[in-house]
Amino acid sequence: MYQRSGTVGLFSFTLTALAMAMTSERLYAADASANVEHVEVVGQAASIDSALKQQRRSDSIESVVHADGVAQLPDENVAEAAQRLPGISVERDQGEGRFVSVRGLGPDLNSVTINGTLVPSPESERRAVALDVLPSELVQSLSVIKTLTPDMDANSLGGTVDVKSLSAFDHKGLFYTGGTEASYDKNTHQTSPKFSGAVSNRFSLGDGIDNFGVAAALSWQKRDFGSDNVETGGAWDFQRGAQLEEFEQRDYDISRERTGAGVNFDYKPDDLSSYYLRTLYSRYKDSETRNSTAIEFVEPQVAGVLGDAEGSRKLKQREETQQIQSYVLGGERLLGLWTLSGQAGYSRSSEDSPGHIANAAFKGIDDFSDSGFYSNDKPRPIIGQNFYNASQFSLDKVDWEKQNTTDTEKNLRLDLARDYDLSGYASQVKFGGKVSRRNKDNDLDAWVYEDFDDLGFNDAQLNLDRFAKGSVDYRLGQFGPGISGSAIKNLIGGLNRADFYDQTESTVNDFKMSEDINAGYLMNTIDIDDWRFIAGLRYEGTEFEAKGTGATDGDFEATKTQRRYHHWLPGLHARYQLDKNTQVRAAWTKTVVRPTFGQLAPGFVIDDDEATFGNPDLKPLESSNLDLGIEHFMGRAGTVSAFVFYKDIENFVYNTDLAGTGAWTNFSEAHTFANGDSAKLYGLELAYSQKFDWLPAPWDGLLLGANTTFSRSSADIEGFDTARGTQRKRSIDLPSQSDTVGNLMLGWEKDKVSLRLSANYKSAYLYELASIDDKDHDLHVDAQTFVDFSARYSLTKNLQLSFEAQNLTDESYFVYTGHRSYNGQYEEYGPTYKLGLTFTHF
Questions:
Q1: CA distances from 434 to 297, 326, 351, 716 (A)
Q2: Does the predicted model carry a pTM greater than 0.85?
Q3: Are 803 and 754 in contact (CB under 8 A)?
Q4: Would 482 disulfide with which of 99, 146, 291, 819, CB 3.0-4.6 Å?
C-alpha cells in the first residue's frame, strides 16, 4: 500500500496535467509565436524556455536544464538539477544528490561528459561520476541524451549526461556575477559558508568585432553537517522467526569543502570558423568522523527478548579529496559544402585518502547480560547502563589505511560533413573517427594493529577511558562516549609501522587497467517534407588490459589479462513534424557499456576454502534500444510530451557465488561476478510544463511542471543453490531501478519575486543481491519523497536575495532486508536552510 499510493498519486496528477494542457492549448492556437514575442519572463521561465528550445531542435531524444539569468542552475549541484528531468533519479550520499540514474539504469551504466569529453571516475571501483563535485555556478546547461546518434560515443545504456560550461557568447557584452550564501543544517546545528562568482566579456581581435570571448567562474563552499544511523546490514535469521544477530548505531560528523574553477576561451574570426578552449577544475574534500556502537547477540533474538550480548565501540576517521580536471580544445571550419570539426580532450580524476583510521575497535570487557532490542525497522537497544560507561571497554584493534586512485582519459576526434541535394531533398553525409586512451590505477596500503597485550600494553593503557571524547550527539537515542582520533594516533604512532603491514590487503587491491578504444562512424541525414531521418553505423574496437596480484593462502602471484573485442552499432532516428508545434520522434539504437573496474578487478584472495575475486573476462553489456514519443510545445516555457522506451540488454553483470561448481567444487564460498543472459527494461515517460501568462494577474506569474516515469525490468541470474546442491536460476529486477519516478514543480514569478516549490519521488528499488537461494536477504531501498522550497527577491535591478529550504519533510534513507519490516539501514539527515545574496550585471 505504501508504494502503490505514491504511484497512483503521481499518475493521477500527470493525467490531470495532460488534461489541463489540452484545454489551455486553445488559447495558444491563434498565434503561439506572438506570445513568445511579447511575454516577458525572468528566472525560472527563461531557464525552462531555453531548455525546451534546445530539446526541440535536438536530433536525439534528450532532456535539458538551463542556467537562469545569473548563470546558476536551479539546484545546489549538477546531480540535484538533473533529478528534475523526466526519467532521471539520483542516488544520495548523506542526503545530498550524487550519482544519476537514467530510466532505471544504475549510474555505472551511464556516462558523463563535460564539453563533449568523457569524465573518468575518481572512485577506484566505479565508472559512475558523482556529479555533486561540479558546482552549479560553472554550468551553463545540463542535458541528458537518451538516444545516441552514430557520431556519439556509444558508452551508455540509459543515457549520457552532458555538461556545458559557461561561454562568453552566452551573454552580450560584459557580464559578471558574485554571490555569498550561508546554510544551516538542522541536524547538527552547523552554519556553513559559500562564495561564488563568474565573469565574461567579448573583445575585438584583428578586423573582427566582439569575436573573442573569455569567461571565468569560481566557486567555494564548506558545508558542515551530519547524520544519524542504525543498521543491521541484513543480519537477520529468518529460519528461526526473524531473529536479529547484530546491529550497529552510527553517528556521522562530516565536513565537505568544494572548490570549482573554469576559464573558457572562444574565438570566431569570421562567419566560417570558430575555435574554443574549455577548462574546468573541481576539488571535493570530504572529512568524516564516524562513531559507532555495535551489539552482537550471543544467540539471535527477536524483538523484546533479552539475553547475553557482546558490545563494542568503533571509530572511523578519514579525509579524502577528489579532483577532476578537464581540458577541451576544438573548432569548426566551413569549407564550401563541407564542414570540418575536431576536438582534443584530456580529463583526469583522482581520489586521495591519506593515512587514516579505517577502524578503531574497543570491545566490551565482559558480556552485557539482559540485552535485547525493540523495533524491527529501526532497532533500538535494550541494555544496561554499563554499555554507556567508557571504563567497560578495552582497545582490541586498529586498522590504518591510505589509498590513491587516478583515472585519466585522452581522446582525439575528427568529423567531416558535407551538405548535398538528394532528389530535391536536403541531405548531409557525415563521417569521422575518434581514438581514446583510458588508464585507471589504484594503490592501497593497509596496516592492522592488534594483540596489544603481547606488545607490552597493560589494561589501563587500553581502556576506553583514556581515549574517550565527550558524549556523542545522537538523535536516535542514547549513545554514550565518543572516541578521540588523536589519542588513537598517539598510541600507534609510537609503534614500528612495518611490523603491522597487511601484505595481502595491500597487494590484492592494487591494479593497473587500460582501455583503448578506436571508433569510426558513417551517418546520413535527410529531410523529406516534414520528416527528418538519420541512419548510420558506428564501429568501436576495444583493447583492454588489467594487471594485478592474487594471493593463495599467503602466497602471491602476478596476474595479467589482455582482451580485444569489437562492436558494430547501427542506429536509425526519425522525427516527423505533425504541425508547427508538434513533433513525433522514433529511434532504434545499439549501445554498449563496459563492466565496472571493481567487477573487472584482476586481484583475488583464496584462503583455505573461501575465495573472493574479480572477473577481467567479463563481456561488455550490450543493449538494443527502441524509443517512440510525441512532443507538443505551447508558447513560452510550455510543453507536453509522452515517450515509451524498451531496452533488451545482453550480458547483464551480477554478483554470484561459484562455490560447489567447476574449479570451486570444494569451496564453501567463491564470490565473483558473472554475465547473465539478458535483461529487459521498458517504460513510459510523461512530462508537462507551462507558464500561465494568459491568466489574469496575479495568476499570470504561475508556472507548473510535472513529469512521471513508469518502468519495469527483469533479469535472469544463475548460481549454485547450496541447500539443494544444484544450479538454479532466478528472476530479479535490475538493481537501482525504481518502478516510478516523478517530479512536481509549482512556481510563481513576477516583477521582483520568484518562488518555487518542488517535490521529487522515487519508489523502492533493489539495492544489493544476496545469494541465489536467499531472496529474503536481498537489500532494497525504500521509496523516498524530497520536498524543497526556494524564493528569490530582487532588492534592486542587480541585487537579489535568495532563500532555500531543502528536505522540508525530513525524509530519511531506509534500506530493508527482504521485507519493509526488517532493517538493513536507516539514516536521518534533517532539513537544511540557506540564505544568499547575489549581485549580477548583464
A1: 58, 18, 28, 35
A2: yes
A3: no
A4: 291
Cβ neighbours for 660, distance < 8 A, ≥ 6 positions apart:
667, 720, 722, 725
| Measured distance CA(732)–CA(710) in Å, rounded | 17
Strands 160-165 and 111-114: parallel
* Grid coordinates given for 449: 594493529
- 335 by Cβ neighbours in 10 Å (0-12 / 13-18 / 19+) ranks as exposed
Query: Taking Cα atoms as reference points, which of 467, 470, 463 lies closest to residue 488?
Result: 467
Residue 424 near residue 400 (C-beta atoms within 8 A): no
**Of 622, 517, 525, 642, the residue nearest 572 (C-alpha):** 525
| 3 state DSSP class of 544 | strand
The answer to whether 744 and 787 have CB atoms below 8 angstroms apart is: no
Confidence of residue 7 (pLDDT cuts 50, 70, 90): very low
User: For the chain, how far is it from start to end, CA to CA, in angstroms?
Assistant: 52
Q: Which burial class, exposed, middle or buried, applies to 476 when counting CB atoms under 10 A from its CB (0-12, 13-18, 19+)?
A: middle
Neighbours of 617 (CB within 10 A): 11
Q: Cα separations (Å) of 518 from 246, 521, 541, 817? A: 51, 11, 5, 44
At 287, list the grid cell.
572529512
Q: Where are the beta strands (DSSP E) in 472-620?
A: 481-483, 511-528, 531-552, 555-579, 582-593, 604-607, 610-613
CA distance linking residue 527 with residue 360, whole number of Å: 67
CA distances from 789 to 316, 762, 805 (A): 34, 18, 5
Cross-sheet strand order for the sheet of 62-66: 62-66, 139-145, 160-165, 111-114, 117-118
Summarize pLDDT for 331-360 with one digit per residue, the tens.
999 999 999 999 999 999 999 999 999 999
Burial 392-404 (b: 16+ CB within 10 A, else e): bbbbbebbbbbbb
Alpha helices in 158-202 (DSSP H): none
For residue 668, which phi and psi values (nearest 5 degrees)?
A: -85, -25
Tell which residue, 495, 485, 404, 392, has the closest CA to residue 445.
404
In this structure, the chain runs to a length of 842
pLDDT band at 9 (very low <50, low <70, confident <90, very high): very low
Say if CB 163 and CB 111 are below 8 A apart: no
C-alpha dihedral (618, 620, 626, 627), degrees to nearest 10: 110
Q: Any idea which fold 2-841 has?
A: Maltoporin; Chain A (2.40.170)
588-to-571, 626, 679 alpha-carbon distances in Å: 6, 5, 17
DSSP conformational letter for 385: G
Integer Rg of the chain from CA? 28
Residue 736: HSE in the Cβ half-sphere, 13 Å Cα cutoff = 20
305-319, 406-420, 668-682: lowest mean pLDDT where? 668-682
Q: What are phi and psi of 9, to 5 degrees?
A: -60, -45
When pLDDT is averaged across residues 628-644 and rounded to a whole number, the result is: 92
Residues with Cβ < 8 Å from 26, sequence gap 6 or more? none
Report how far residue 368's alpha carbon sits from residue 384's, in angstroms, rounded to the nearest whole number.
7
DSSP per residue, 409-448: EEEEEEEEEEEEEETTEEEEEEEEEEEEEEEEEEEEEEEE
- Distance in angstroms (rounded) separating the CA atoms of residues 398 and 393: 14
Amino acid at 617: D
Comparing CA positions, the residue from 587, 591, 605, 425 lying closest to residue 502 is 605
> Please, which pLDDT band fits residue 22 given cuts at 50, 70 and 90?
very low
Strands 610-613 and 669-675: parallel
